[in-house]
Protein backbone atom coordinates (compact mmCIF):
# COMPACT_ATOMS: atom_id res chain seq x y z
CA UNK A 1 0.00 0.00 0.00
CA UNK A 2 1.27 3.48 -0.87
CA UNK A 3 0.34 6.15 1.67
CA UNK A 4 0.99 9.89 1.41
CA UNK A 5 1.09 11.65 4.78
CA UNK A 6 0.36 15.39 4.61
CA UNK A 7 1.13 17.83 7.43
CA UNK A 8 2.41 21.39 7.45
CA UNK A 9 5.46 20.56 9.61
CA UNK A 10 7.58 17.52 8.81
CA UNK A 11 9.64 17.36 11.99
CA UNK A 12 8.92 16.61 15.66
CA UNK A 13 7.27 19.82 16.80
CA UNK A 14 4.04 18.97 18.62
CA UNK A 15 1.40 16.31 19.15
CA UNK A 16 0.23 16.18 15.52
CA UNK A 17 3.77 15.73 14.24
CA UNK A 18 4.58 13.05 16.84
CA UNK A 19 1.40 11.26 15.78
CA UNK A 20 1.93 11.08 12.03
CA UNK A 21 5.70 10.45 12.23
CA UNK A 22 5.16 7.44 14.48
CA UNK A 23 2.25 6.12 12.45
CA UNK A 24 4.27 6.50 9.26
CA UNK A 25 7.27 4.74 10.80
CA UNK A 26 5.10 1.85 11.98
CA UNK A 27 3.52 1.43 8.54
CA UNK A 28 6.96 1.42 6.92
CA UNK A 29 8.08 -1.33 9.31
CA UNK A 30 5.15 -3.41 8.07
CA UNK A 31 6.34 -3.01 4.48
CA UNK A 32 4.05 -0.23 3.25
CA UNK A 33 5.43 2.66 1.22
CA UNK A 34 5.00 6.00 3.00
CA UNK A 35 5.94 9.45 1.70
CA UNK A 36 5.36 12.88 3.19
CA UNK A 37 4.34 16.31 1.96
CA UNK A 38 4.53 19.57 3.88
CA UNK A 39 6.56 22.75 4.30
CA UNK A 40 10.29 22.87 3.67
CA UNK A 41 12.41 23.22 6.77
CA UNK A 42 16.02 22.34 7.56
CA UNK A 43 14.69 20.32 10.51
CA UNK A 44 12.52 18.06 8.32
CA UNK A 45 12.81 14.40 9.32
CA UNK A 46 10.89 12.83 6.41
CA UNK A 47 10.62 13.42 2.65
CA UNK A 48 9.05 12.47 -0.67
CA UNK A 49 10.55 11.02 -3.86
CA UNK A 50 9.62 14.11 -5.89
CA UNK A 51 11.55 16.32 -3.45
CA UNK A 52 8.67 18.83 -3.52
CA UNK A 53 7.58 20.94 -0.53
CA UNK A 54 6.02 24.34 -0.01
CA UNK A 55 8.46 27.15 0.69
CA UNK A 56 9.11 28.02 4.30
CA UNK A 57 6.79 30.53 5.98
CA UNK A 58 8.17 32.31 9.03
CA UNK A 59 5.46 34.45 10.61
CA UNK A 60 7.93 35.93 13.10
CA UNK A 61 10.48 37.30 10.62
CA UNK A 62 10.17 40.62 8.83
CA UNK A 63 10.82 40.96 5.11
CA UNK A 64 9.34 41.62 1.70
CA UNK A 65 8.13 38.00 1.32
CA UNK A 66 5.73 38.48 4.22
CA UNK A 67 3.61 40.83 2.11
CA UNK A 68 2.17 37.80 0.30
CA UNK A 69 1.55 35.76 3.46
CA UNK A 70 -2.12 36.79 3.92
CA UNK A 71 -2.91 35.48 0.43
CA UNK A 72 -0.84 32.31 0.73
CA UNK A 73 -2.33 31.25 4.07
CA UNK A 74 -5.87 31.57 2.73
CA UNK A 75 -5.38 29.57 -0.49
CA UNK A 76 -1.97 28.27 -1.52
CA UNK A 77 -1.61 27.73 -5.26
CA UNK A 78 1.98 26.76 -4.55
CA UNK A 79 0.92 23.93 -2.20
CA UNK A 80 -1.61 22.70 -4.74
CA UNK A 81 0.95 22.68 -7.55
CA UNK A 82 3.65 20.95 -5.51
CA UNK A 83 1.44 18.26 -4.01
CA UNK A 84 0.34 17.56 -7.60
CA UNK A 85 3.96 16.76 -8.49
CA UNK A 86 4.26 14.46 -5.48
CA UNK A 87 1.07 12.62 -6.43
CA UNK A 88 2.20 12.15 -10.04
CA UNK A 89 5.59 10.84 -8.93
CA UNK A 90 4.49 8.66 -6.00
CA UNK A 91 0.97 7.65 -7.16
CA UNK A 92 -0.40 7.05 -3.64
CA UNK A 93 -3.31 4.70 -2.97
CA UNK A 94 -4.59 6.96 -0.19
CA UNK A 95 -3.73 10.32 1.38
CA UNK A 96 -3.76 10.83 5.15
CA UNK A 97 -4.17 14.51 6.02
CA UNK A 98 -3.23 15.98 9.38
CA UNK A 99 -2.75 19.70 10.19
CA UNK A 100 -2.80 21.63 6.90
CA UNK A 101 -4.21 25.12 7.53
CA UNK A 102 -2.17 28.31 7.01
CA UNK A 103 1.15 26.81 5.81
CA UNK A 104 -0.46 24.41 3.27
CA UNK A 105 -4.15 25.41 3.25
CA UNK A 106 -7.09 23.15 2.30
CA UNK A 107 -6.24 23.87 -1.35
CA UNK A 108 -4.38 20.54 -1.19
CA UNK A 109 -7.70 18.75 -0.53
CA UNK A 110 -9.07 20.06 -3.82
CA UNK A 111 -5.99 18.90 -5.72
CA UNK A 112 -6.04 15.41 -4.18
CA UNK A 113 -9.76 15.12 -4.97
CA UNK A 114 -9.03 16.05 -8.61
CA UNK A 115 -6.83 12.93 -8.82
CA UNK A 116 -9.68 10.78 -7.42
CA UNK A 117 -7.58 9.55 -4.49
CA UNK A 118 -9.40 8.69 -1.24
CA UNK A 119 -8.58 10.97 1.69
CA UNK A 120 -8.89 10.65 5.43
CA UNK A 121 -8.00 13.38 7.92
CA UNK A 122 -7.10 13.11 11.58
CA UNK A 123 -8.74 15.96 13.48
CA UNK A 124 -5.94 17.10 15.79
CA UNK A 125 -7.69 20.36 16.65
CA UNK A 126 -10.84 22.29 15.79
CA UNK A 127 -9.39 23.96 12.66
CA UNK A 128 -12.34 22.91 10.48
CA UNK A 129 -14.95 24.56 12.69
CA UNK A 130 -13.02 27.32 14.47
CA UNK A 131 -10.79 29.85 12.68
CA UNK A 132 -8.40 30.12 15.65
CA UNK A 133 -8.24 26.31 16.01
CA UNK A 134 -8.73 26.16 19.80
CA UNK A 135 -12.36 27.25 20.38
CA UNK A 136 -11.17 29.68 23.03
CA UNK A 137 -11.82 33.39 23.57
CA UNK A 138 -8.67 35.24 24.64
CA UNK A 139 -10.62 38.10 26.22
CA UNK A 140 -13.16 36.17 28.32
CA UNK A 141 -10.63 33.36 28.86
CA UNK A 142 -13.40 30.85 28.31
CA UNK A 143 -14.22 28.17 25.73
CA UNK A 144 -16.06 29.53 22.72
CA UNK A 145 -18.10 27.96 19.91
CA UNK A 146 -19.57 31.09 18.31
CA UNK A 147 -18.19 30.21 14.87
CA UNK A 148 -19.64 26.72 15.05
CA UNK A 149 -23.12 27.91 15.95
CA UNK A 150 -23.03 31.20 14.05
CA UNK A 151 -21.02 33.15 11.51
CA UNK A 152 -17.30 32.64 10.96
CA UNK A 153 -17.06 36.45 11.09
CA UNK A 154 -17.19 36.08 14.89
CA UNK A 155 -13.45 35.37 14.75
CA UNK A 156 -12.82 38.82 13.25
CA UNK A 157 -15.35 40.48 15.53
CA UNK A 158 -13.75 39.17 18.74
CA UNK A 159 -10.10 39.26 17.54
CA UNK A 160 -9.76 35.56 18.32
CA UNK A 161 -6.40 34.89 16.64
CA UNK A 162 -3.58 36.20 18.83
CA UNK A 163 -5.87 39.14 19.79
CA UNK A 164 -5.01 40.60 16.37
CA UNK A 165 -7.65 42.28 14.20
CA UNK A 166 -5.73 41.60 10.96
CA UNK A 167 -5.00 37.93 11.71
CA UNK A 168 -8.56 37.37 12.86
CA UNK A 169 -10.03 38.89 9.67
CA UNK A 170 -7.77 36.60 7.61
CA UNK A 171 -8.91 33.63 9.72
CA UNK A 172 -12.57 34.45 9.12
CA UNK A 173 -12.02 34.85 5.37
CA UNK A 174 -10.22 31.50 5.20
CA UNK A 175 -13.00 29.71 7.09
CA UNK A 176 -15.75 31.27 4.98
CA UNK A 177 -13.94 30.44 1.74
CA UNK A 178 -13.80 26.72 2.42
CA UNK A 179 -17.38 26.60 3.66
CA UNK A 180 -18.44 28.27 0.42
CA UNK A 181 -16.34 25.92 -1.72
CA UNK A 182 -17.48 22.86 0.34
CA UNK A 183 -13.86 21.76 0.40
CA UNK A 184 -13.98 19.69 3.59
CA UNK A 185 -16.87 17.72 2.09
CA UNK A 186 -14.33 16.19 -0.32
CA UNK A 187 -12.61 14.30 2.52
CA UNK A 188 -13.87 10.71 2.87
CA UNK A 189 -13.48 10.24 6.62
CA UNK A 190 -12.50 12.35 9.63
CA UNK A 191 -10.74 10.45 12.42
CA UNK A 192 -11.68 12.13 15.72
CA UNK A 193 -9.41 11.41 18.73
CA UNK A 194 -12.35 12.03 21.11
CA UNK A 195 -16.12 11.64 21.17
CA UNK A 196 -16.20 15.29 22.17
CA UNK A 197 -14.55 16.37 18.91
CA UNK A 198 -16.80 14.08 16.88
CA UNK A 199 -19.87 15.64 18.49
CA UNK A 200 -18.64 19.13 17.62
CA UNK A 201 -17.97 18.16 14.00
CA UNK A 202 -21.35 16.55 13.64
CA UNK A 203 -22.96 19.89 14.48
CA UNK A 204 -21.64 21.14 11.14
CA UNK A 205 -23.68 19.47 8.40
CA UNK A 206 -20.80 18.92 5.96
CA UNK A 207 -19.08 16.59 8.49
CA UNK A 208 -22.16 14.58 9.43
CA UNK A 209 -21.85 10.94 8.43
CA UNK A 210 -18.11 11.18 7.84
CA UNK A 211 -16.65 10.72 11.31
CA UNK A 212 -15.18 7.90 13.37
CA UNK A 213 -13.60 7.95 16.84
CA UNK A 214 -10.17 6.51 17.58
CA UNK A 215 -8.56 7.66 20.81
CA UNK A 216 -4.87 8.47 20.43
CA UNK A 217 -2.32 5.72 20.91
CA UNK A 218 0.30 5.81 23.63
CA UNK A 219 3.78 4.29 23.57
CA UNK A 220 3.95 2.64 26.97
CA UNK A 221 7.04 3.65 28.91
CA UNK A 222 9.09 1.11 30.83
CA UNK A 223 7.49 0.17 34.16
CA UNK A 224 10.02 -2.47 35.19
CA UNK A 225 10.89 -2.21 38.87
CA UNK A 226 9.37 0.23 41.34
CA UNK A 227 9.75 3.96 40.88
CA UNK A 228 9.49 5.59 44.27
CA UNK A 229 7.44 8.77 44.23
CA UNK A 230 9.34 11.92 45.15
CA UNK A 231 8.02 14.98 46.94
CA UNK A 232 6.80 17.11 44.03
CA UNK A 233 3.89 17.53 41.66
CA UNK A 234 4.26 18.14 37.93
CA UNK A 235 2.87 20.19 35.07
CA UNK A 236 4.24 19.33 31.64
CA UNK A 237 3.08 20.58 28.27
CA UNK A 238 2.55 23.81 26.42
CA UNK A 239 2.93 26.96 28.52
CA UNK A 240 0.08 29.11 27.25
CA UNK A 241 -3.00 30.94 28.49
CA UNK A 242 -5.59 28.45 27.25
CA UNK A 243 -3.81 25.59 29.04
CA UNK A 244 -4.58 27.24 32.40
CA UNK A 245 -0.92 27.87 33.19
CA UNK A 246 -1.59 31.31 34.71
CA UNK A 247 -4.27 29.88 36.98
CA UNK A 248 -2.04 26.97 37.97
CA UNK A 249 0.84 29.28 38.92
CA UNK A 250 -1.52 31.21 41.19
CA UNK A 251 -2.42 27.90 42.82
CA UNK A 252 1.29 27.23 43.38
CA UNK A 253 1.68 30.57 45.14
CA UNK A 254 -1.12 29.61 47.51
CA UNK A 255 0.54 26.27 48.28
CA UNK A 256 4.10 27.18 49.33
CA UNK A 257 4.51 23.85 51.14
CA UNK A 258 4.19 21.91 47.86
CA UNK A 259 7.18 21.61 45.55
CA UNK A 260 6.17 21.98 41.89
CA UNK A 261 8.11 21.13 38.75
CA UNK A 262 7.11 22.58 35.38
CA UNK A 263 8.36 21.18 32.07
CA UNK A 264 7.56 22.63 28.67
CA UNK A 265 7.82 25.67 26.47
CA UNK A 266 5.48 28.37 25.21
CA UNK A 267 4.55 32.06 25.44
CA UNK A 268 4.09 31.98 29.26
CA UNK A 269 7.49 30.45 29.93
CA UNK A 270 8.69 33.69 31.55
CA UNK A 271 5.98 33.39 34.23
CA UNK A 272 7.32 30.04 35.48
CA UNK A 273 10.37 31.48 37.25
CA UNK A 274 10.72 33.49 40.45
CA UNK A 275 8.20 31.48 42.49
CA UNK A 276 10.00 29.92 45.51
CA UNK A 277 8.31 26.52 45.39
CA UNK A 278 8.29 26.21 41.58
CA UNK A 279 11.18 24.72 39.61
CA UNK A 280 11.07 25.36 35.88
CA UNK A 281 13.04 22.57 34.18
CA UNK A 282 12.48 23.58 30.55
CA UNK A 283 11.45 21.43 27.62
CA UNK A 284 11.96 17.70 28.22
CA UNK A 285 11.46 14.63 26.05
CA UNK A 286 12.20 10.90 26.04
CA UNK A 287 13.56 9.14 29.11
CA UNK A 288 14.18 12.42 30.90
CA UNK A 289 10.50 13.37 30.67
CA UNK A 290 9.37 9.83 31.55
CA UNK A 291 11.44 9.93 34.73
CA UNK A 292 9.97 13.31 35.71
CA UNK A 293 6.47 11.93 35.24
CA UNK A 294 7.02 8.60 37.01
CA UNK A 295 8.54 10.17 40.12
CA UNK A 296 5.90 12.89 40.53
CA UNK A 297 3.21 12.34 43.15
CA UNK A 298 0.69 13.40 40.53
CA UNK A 299 0.45 15.69 37.54
CA UNK A 300 -1.89 18.62 36.95
CA UNK A 301 -3.66 19.44 33.68
CA UNK A 302 -5.58 22.67 34.39
CA UNK A 303 -6.75 23.48 30.86
CA UNK A 304 -9.41 26.19 30.47
CA UNK A 305 -10.04 25.44 26.79
CA UNK A 306 -11.73 22.51 25.06
CA UNK A 307 -9.16 19.73 24.78
CA UNK A 308 -9.32 16.96 22.22
CA UNK A 309 -7.29 13.97 23.41
CA UNK A 310 -4.27 15.39 25.27
CA UNK A 311 -1.23 13.11 25.18
CA UNK A 312 -0.02 14.56 28.48
CA UNK A 313 -2.91 12.87 30.31
CA UNK A 314 -2.28 9.53 28.59
CA UNK A 315 1.46 9.72 29.22
CA UNK A 316 0.98 10.48 32.90
CA UNK A 317 -1.45 7.61 33.48
CA UNK A 318 0.66 5.16 31.48
CA UNK A 319 3.61 5.86 33.78
CA UNK A 320 1.61 5.33 36.98
CA UNK A 321 1.04 8.99 37.81
CA UNK A 322 -2.56 10.14 38.48
CA UNK A 323 -3.82 13.42 37.04
CA UNK A 324 -5.84 16.30 38.47
CA UNK A 325 -7.51 17.83 35.43
CA UNK A 326 -10.31 20.02 34.13
CA UNK A 327 -13.54 18.23 33.27
CA UNK A 328 -13.63 19.82 29.85
CA UNK A 329 -13.67 18.70 26.22
CA UNK A 330 -12.28 15.22 25.68
CA UNK A 331 -10.39 15.01 29.00
CA UNK A 332 -13.18 13.15 30.89
CA UNK A 333 -12.91 10.34 28.31
CA UNK A 334 -9.35 9.63 29.53
CA UNK A 335 -9.62 9.84 33.33
CA UNK A 336 -11.67 7.67 35.69
CA UNK A 337 -12.68 10.17 38.38
CA UNK A 338 -11.20 9.34 41.81
CA UNK A 339 -9.50 6.27 40.35
CA UNK A 340 -6.82 7.36 37.86
CA UNK A 341 -7.22 11.03 38.67
CA UNK A 342 -9.54 13.78 39.77
CA UNK A 343 -11.79 15.74 37.42
CA UNK A 344 -12.68 19.31 38.37
CA UNK A 345 -15.99 20.44 36.91
CA UNK A 346 -16.14 23.99 38.26
CA UNK A 347 -12.82 25.18 36.86
CA UNK A 348 -11.35 27.97 38.95
CA UNK A 349 -8.29 28.77 41.01
CA UNK A 350 -9.85 27.99 44.39
CA UNK A 351 -11.11 24.55 43.36
CA UNK A 352 -7.79 23.52 41.83
CA UNK A 353 -5.91 24.77 44.90
CA UNK A 354 -8.20 22.80 47.19
CA UNK A 355 -7.98 19.56 45.22
CA UNK A 356 -4.20 19.78 44.76
CA UNK A 357 -3.66 20.35 48.48
CA UNK A 358 -6.01 17.55 49.52
CA UNK A 359 -4.47 14.93 47.22
CA UNK A 360 -0.91 15.98 48.06
CA UNK A 361 -1.61 15.23 51.73
CA UNK A 362 -3.20 11.83 51.04
CA UNK A 363 -0.39 9.38 50.26
CA UNK A 364 -2.71 6.37 50.50
CA UNK A 365 -5.00 7.79 47.84
CA UNK A 366 -2.03 8.64 45.62
CA UNK A 367 -0.80 5.05 45.96
CA UNK A 368 -4.24 3.65 45.12
CA UNK A 369 -4.58 5.90 42.09
CA UNK A 370 -1.07 5.07 40.91
CA UNK A 371 -1.89 1.36 41.03
CA UNK A 372 -5.09 2.00 39.05
CA UNK A 373 -3.08 3.88 36.43
CA UNK A 374 -0.60 1.02 36.07
CA UNK A 375 -3.44 -1.51 35.79
CA UNK A 376 -5.01 0.65 33.06
CA UNK A 377 -1.94 0.18 30.85
CA UNK A 378 -3.31 -3.14 29.57
CA UNK A 379 -6.36 -1.32 28.15
CA UNK A 380 -4.55 1.59 26.51
CA UNK A 381 -4.30 1.84 22.73
CA UNK A 382 -0.81 0.86 21.57
CA UNK A 383 0.91 2.03 18.38
CA UNK A 384 0.40 -1.51 17.03
CA UNK A 385 -3.36 -1.45 17.77
CA UNK A 386 -3.73 1.97 16.24
CA UNK A 387 -1.56 1.31 13.21
CA UNK A 388 -3.40 -1.90 12.36
CA UNK A 389 -6.73 -0.13 12.67
CA UNK A 390 -5.50 2.56 10.29
CA UNK A 391 -4.57 -0.13 7.75
CA UNK A 392 -8.15 -1.43 7.99
CA UNK A 393 -9.46 2.08 7.34
CA UNK A 394 -7.10 2.69 4.44
CA UNK A 395 -8.05 -0.62 2.83
CA UNK A 396 -11.75 0.05 3.25
CA UNK A 397 -11.62 3.41 1.51
CA UNK A 398 -9.22 2.28 -1.21
CA UNK A 399 -11.51 -0.63 -2.03
CA UNK A 400 -14.56 1.60 -1.87
CA UNK A 401 -13.06 3.95 -4.42
CA UNK A 402 -12.20 1.05 -6.71
CA UNK A 403 -15.57 -0.61 -6.38
CA UNK A 404 -17.91 0.80 -8.97
CA UNK A 405 -20.99 -0.62 -7.27
CA UNK A 406 -20.46 1.45 -4.12
CA UNK A 407 -22.09 -1.23 -1.93
CA UNK A 408 -20.45 -0.64 1.43
CA UNK A 409 -21.46 0.26 4.95
CA UNK A 410 -21.54 3.96 5.76
CA UNK A 411 -18.84 5.69 7.85
CA UNK A 412 -21.31 6.00 10.72
CA UNK A 413 -21.91 2.22 10.75
CA UNK A 414 -18.16 1.68 10.66
CA UNK A 415 -17.67 4.08 13.54
CA UNK A 416 -20.28 2.34 15.68
CA UNK A 417 -19.05 -1.17 14.95
CA UNK A 418 -15.29 -0.77 14.86
CA UNK A 419 -14.22 1.92 17.30
CA UNK A 420 -11.17 1.14 19.37
What's the short version?
With 420 residues, the protein is of the alpha/beta class.
CATH fold name of the largest domain, please?
Rossmann fold
Report the end-to-end length measured between terminal Cα atoms: 22 Å
The total of helices stands at: 15
Structural class: alpha/beta
**How many distinct folded domains?**
2
Describe it for me?
- The protein has 420 residues and is α/β, with parallel strands linked by helices.
- It folds into 2 domains: 2-122 and 182-217 and 384-417, 3-Layer(aba) Sandwich (Rossmann fold); 233-379, Glycogen Phosphorylase B (Rossmann fold).
- The protein is 37% helix and 14% strand.
- It has 15 helices and 14 strands.
- The chain has helices at residues 15-29, 69-72, 77-90, 107-114, 146-149, 154-157, 165-180, 195-202, 245-254, 286-295, 311-318, 349-360, 363-376, 383-402, 411-417, and strands at 2-6, 33-37, 94-97, 119-122, 136-137, 142-143, 189-192, 211-213, 233-238, 260-265, 278-282, 299-301, 323-326, 341-344.
- A 6-stranded parallel β-sheet has the order 2-1-3-4-7-8, with helices on both faces. A 3-stranded parallel β-sheet has the order 9-10-11, covered by helices on one side. A 3-stranded parallel β-sheet has the order 12-13-14, with helices on both faces.
- Helix 1 (15-29) crosses helix 14 and helix 9 crosses helix 12.
- The longest helix is centred in the last third of the chain and has 20 residues, at 383-402.
- The protein starts with a strand and ends with a helix.
- Mean pLDDT is 90; it is low at 407-420.
Notable features of this structure?
420 residues; Rossmann fold; disordered C terminus; 15 helices; alpha/beta; 2 domains
Amino acid sequence: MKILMVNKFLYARGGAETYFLKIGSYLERLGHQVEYFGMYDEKNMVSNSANEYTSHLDFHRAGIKRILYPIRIIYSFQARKRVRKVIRKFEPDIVHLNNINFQLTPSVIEEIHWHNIPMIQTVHDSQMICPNHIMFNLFTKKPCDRCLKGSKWNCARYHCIHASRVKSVIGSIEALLYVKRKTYGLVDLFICPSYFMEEKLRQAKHFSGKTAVLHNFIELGNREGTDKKEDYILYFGRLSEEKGVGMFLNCCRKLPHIKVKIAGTGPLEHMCTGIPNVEFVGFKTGNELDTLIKKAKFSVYPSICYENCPLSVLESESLGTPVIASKLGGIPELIEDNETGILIEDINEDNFTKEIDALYKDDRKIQMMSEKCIAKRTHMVSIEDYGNKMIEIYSQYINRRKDETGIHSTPIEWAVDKRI
